[in-house]
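S., here's the first fold you wanted:
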Amino acid sequence: MKTMLTTVSELYDAVQLDLRQPPASAFSRPERQSGLIGLIETWFDRARFREELALMARDTPERIDDIGLTMEQARTEIAKPFWRR
């Protein structure tokens, strides 16, 4: 399991993520499960992404700007509960 987003493009892709169609990458599953299991996976991915974004905003805020987000946009995304897109 991947614990941190390591490139600017990965983070940017994650921010633009439409979880109905997960992006293809070396770290994603070939197909997302449907039903309850898929929903739980989606929620877990959102929570993990927002936690990583919060760590990045705290530890290296200049990287937030590098990916084309403002700190306000990052804070808004971080503040969302895992069940919200």
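And the second, which I think is the more interesting of the pair:
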Amino acid sequence: MGITTGLAQAQKPFEKSWYDLGYTSIEKALTACERLFQRDIVLPTRVPPMVFTHQFGRCYHDTDENGANNEFSAEYVHEKRSGVRYSITVRPAKFGMKLIQKRIKHVYTLQNQAKAILYRIRDDVPLYILILEKDGWQYRLMLDDGGLNQASSDILLGIANTIQ
């Protein structure tokens, strides 16, 4: 019992920082957002072939009456390797991220013929996300594995193709 308690206390600060930001389990956050939006959110069935020590979810509910910033997010992280992170953000497509043309790196066609856009988030940071729309949702998938390469974009495309 003493070992378990000590281990739980040692892990608490990492998890607490996520909980302090409003994160909880992915399941609880997904349920909360489905209630908020009054419809199902379908998540990909695949995650990147990387090791994650934790997964967290958050249903962000903006107090603005039009709900333009309401969204679900899931974060997969590794406690000891800060450069390893995968995230999914889902929000109603009508409030989707506005894209700047010069930041679009590539447009792909998914297996269901939908378009997916590889997009650079900021000019000064080489971090890309894959953006797609399905069933009235905008999905943003991000893989931070130390820099985007062809393998990273292929992984994100494989994940995007599992959203049914």
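Why I say that: Helices lie at 2-20, 26-37, 150-160. The longest helix spans residues 2-20.

Talk tomorrow,
H.
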